[in-house]
Amino acid sequence: MIESGKTAHDPAHWRSLLFVPATRERYVESALKRDADALMLDLEDSVAADQKTLARERVRQIAERYVQAGFGVAVRVNRPWRLLVRDIEACVSPQVHALTLPKVNEPGLVRAVAEILQDCEHEQGLAQGHTRLIVMVEDAEGLENVSAIARAHPRISGLIVGAEDLAVSMRMAVHEDTLYVPNVLALAACRRAGITPVGFIGSVADFADREAFRAKLERAARLGFESAFCIHPQQVDIVNQAFTPAPEAVARARALLAEFDAQCAAGRAACTFEGRMVDAPVAEQARQLLARHEALAARAAARALARG
After folding, report:
1. Cα–Cα separations (whole angstroms), residue 177 to 167, 202, 217
2. What are the domain boundaries of the chain?
3. Which of 99, 91, 89, 33 minimizes the C-alpha distance to 58?
4. Which residue, of 145, 156, 173, 233, has the greatest Cβ tally within 10 A?
5. What is the Cα–Cα distance from 59 to 93, expressed in whole angstroms?
6. What residues in the chain have per-residue pLDDT under 50?
7. What is the pLDDT of residues 50-75, one digit of tens each?
8. Comparing C-alpha atoms, which of 202, 209, 197, 115 is closest to residue 167?
């Protein structure tokens, strides 16, 4: 059985994952100055074909530096099988907490990758399930199979829709109108599977307008997303803020539950709080917000301890 660990490096509790090209030392260094929950070494789109081997060889050394600095570490691997197997063999280590698997179009792919991971973890002396998976749905076939993909294997901690590749597959524009339904379908699939919904309605490549990006992330949080990829350091703080319950929301949730629980103890099934009726579903929303707040606080404390 694979369970999400209660540590600073639990991918289920990562809000922000900042891409870092594995072959670009300047970016590798600058990422250490950011406040991302996890740094995601990229072996795929940001690495030229003739640099794939070099990128792969650098993963463990870079990951060690990142873990010592208190970051979670993920690696986006390549999709063609010959590259993918080499990537997995090079990446599985104590310092790599998750692999991001692109272009997932059916659940069998995830199960095959999980089998390879099992062998690699055994060879490395790691606990089975150490290496989690974040899966990317990026074409029409994957979108049709998104619910089955989300439930394909217990290693999966999160799922995201890849906007740019999906747009190519669907022959559609990269726009909030075209991406709304795919993202909501993915969100529903994640909730049914009990994994983290990653993403927002739009393209991760749009980073120049900070306020527009902030609006997208606030919308994503309202929809129920809890995590996002970042391709630029300026996006990190916006993502963290959007996916962290505000202090006033936490205080309100606690007060609401205190009133609701008191009324339930008095034999009532509902109450009024701040001029609004509160019944069981409203109280459960407050509990979910507090659970999110407590999980993030525990992750922050564990990360601070890891940093010394």
Report:
1. 12, 9, 16
2. 11-242, 247-307
3. 91
4. 156
5. 10
6. 1-6
7. 999 999 999 999 999 999 999 999 99
8. 202
